[in-house]
Write a structure and sequence with these properties.
The protein is an alpha/beta fold. Helix content is 38%, strand content 19%. It has helices at 11-22, 82-104, 140-150, 153-157, 176-186, 205-217, 235-246, 256-263, 266-270, 279-283, 293-300; strands spanning 2-6, 26-31, 38-39, 45-50, 55-56, 66-69, 112-115, 117-118, 129-130, 161-167, 169-171, 199-200, 202-204, 223-227, 233-234, 275-276. Strands 1, 2, 3, 4, 5, 6, 7, 8, 10 and 14 form a ten-stranded mixed sheet that branches. Helix 7 (235-246) crosses helix 11 (293-300). It is globular.
Length: 301
């Protein structure tokens, strides 16, 4: 299958591309530097796009049967200044609008667009169990997710099956939050964040990649799909699992005041609670390799 991927050099994107190539698929990367377009050393092909200018190499998308759209500025990469919040929003919304318009106007559009979203869609939900039928929240990330998903509508209206994987915390030492947390735990400096009672909906990297591919391959799935393990845990429970797996104590809780001093507005998300379950994945028959936090942490390490 010929599959196009945005965000292909990112943490999740690079793992997805590797998985697709290993199974013999043809991968087209969308990249922002025109100097890097054309055949690549890893066997992929790169085509150009500039989502902020709403430019894309439409000819390069010819023959693509599926598109996985993962591009977007990292939520935890910087403090949330007004400028960076604008970048978070525009990188997602404008990128999705650019891609969806190109697919809608293609002579032969792909069968499916897997367009990323996040569990932040639901806002802060405390200990309430949340599935795909739950409403959107009203905080910054929730509203970004609402606009992000809506931006793919032109593709759906053109007959493309559109799926929105709402991903939780992807556990891996190779990237994401794990790349920052795990070294601290290895040194015995890890601890719960804030009260530790907030729910974190996690998923192993292996299950994230398998789920994305599952969404590509199952034509009966569309709309929002939560990509989280079946049993969300509290930050306190995740902290304990990390400490146990590494054989390290976890004695240093980080007070919420300290989180706010270091992270600013982002601290609201870090100390917030999302108890999200993957209802539609389970209904469709997806099998998790790492369904519990212990196995997910061991896989991450």
């Amino acid at each position: 299958m010929r599959i196009a991927v945005t965000g292909s050099t990112g943490f999740i994107g690079s793992a997805l591309v590797g998985s697709l190539l290993a199974d013999g698929h043809e991968v087209v990367r969308l990249v922002r530097r025109r100097s890097r377009t054309g055949p690549q050393a890893d066997g992929t092909t790169a085509i150009g796009w500039n989502p902020l200018l709403m430019e894309i190499d439409r000819a390069g998308l010819a023959g693509v049967e599926a598109v996985v759209h993962l591009a977007g500025a990292g939520v935890g990469d910087h403090r949330w200044t007004d400028r960076y919040k604008r970048e978070i929003r525009e990188s997602r919304v404008l990128g999705t609008e650019t891609l969806a318009a190109a697919l809608a106007e293609a002579g032969q559009p792909p069968r499916v667009l897997v367009s990323a979203s996040a569990v932040g869609y639901y806002g802060q939900t405390g200990d309430r169990v949340i599935d795909e039928d739950s409403p959107a929240g009203d905080d910054f990330l929730a509203q970004v997710c609402v606009e992000w998903e809506a931006a793919a509508r032109p593709a759906a209206e053109a007959g493309v099956r559109v799926v929105h994987p709402r991903t939780g915390l992807v556990l891996s030492a190779a990237g994401g939050a794990g790349a920052r947390l795990f070294p601290l735990f290895r040194l015995g400096l890890g601890g719960r964040l804030g009260s530790g009672s907030q729910y974190w909906s996690y998923i192993s990297l292996a299950d994230e990649i398998a789920a994305l591919r599952f969404l590509i391959d199952h034509p009966d799935i569309e709309g929002p799909v939560n990509l989280t393990a079946p049993e969300p845990v509290t930050n306190r429970e995740l902290t304990a699992a990390l400490g146990k797996a590494l054989g390290r104590p976890t004695p240093f809780p980080v007070p919420e005041a300290a989180l706010k001093a270091v992270l600013g507005e982002l601290a609201v998300e870090v100390a917030g609670s999302h108890r999200v379950v993957p209802g539609r994945l389970l209904e469709a028959g997806f099998r998790f390799r790492h369904p519990d936090v212990g196995s997910a942490v061991r896989a991450a390490l």
